[in-house]
Amino acid sequence: MAVLPIVKYGAEVLRKPAEPIVDIDEAVQKLIDDMVETMYAAPGIGLAANQVGVSKRLMMIDLSVGKRPGELHICINPEIVEREGEQQEDEGCLSIPDFTETVTRPARVKMRYVDRNGTEREMWGEELMARAMCHETDHLNGTLYVDHLRGFKRDRLLKKVTKLSKSGMW
Ligand SMILES: [Zn+2]
Q: What pTM does this model have?
């Protein structure tokens, strides 16, 4: 397994809708293992494949960051199929380090996906899990959390982020 470099804001791969995975082959299994290690090393609670430069519909979430077995969800071709309610909490992203901003998300979501064994699954998530599910599936569609911000908050954050990314500080 290997810790992969995380692609930062400004990279084109973060803005491109990722391709569905047709075959869960050895290369995909290796990518999954490397991404798990990368997410834990960061440390982060979620990671999408395009954040390590691979434009494939694969993402993972572990709210315990590897501390509690059974909390790692590896999701291939995930899709949010139901949304309920609303929540507002601070959100960050490994591809936009050192920034957080309040983002409105559904309170509860249902996601459909395929696990690494090829089994189709459905799961409901609420609170932080719902937020992570939305954030990571957004990544696979080329959307970043900053896209959900409006007005002054968005301008302020993007100005700082653009300055940092141009200066090569990342
Ligand atoms: Zn992110």
A: 0.95
In terms of Cα–Cα distance, which of 24, 40, 13, 22 is closest to 141?
Answer: 13
Partners of residue 79 on adjacent β-strands: 112
Q: For residue 119, how far is its CA from the centre of ligand 1 (angstroms)? A: 25
- How many whole angstroms from 85 Cα to the centroid of ligand 1? 22
- Mean pLDDT confidence for 109-124: 98
Asked if the model's pLDDT at residue 123 lies above 90, the reply is yes
Q: Are 76 and 87 contacting, i.e. CB atoms less than 8 angstroms apart?
A: no
List pLDDT tens digits, range 50-86: 999 999 999 999 999 999 989 999 999 999 999 999 9
Distance from residue 149's CA to the centre of ligand 1 (Å): 14
* pLDDT reported for residue 153: 87
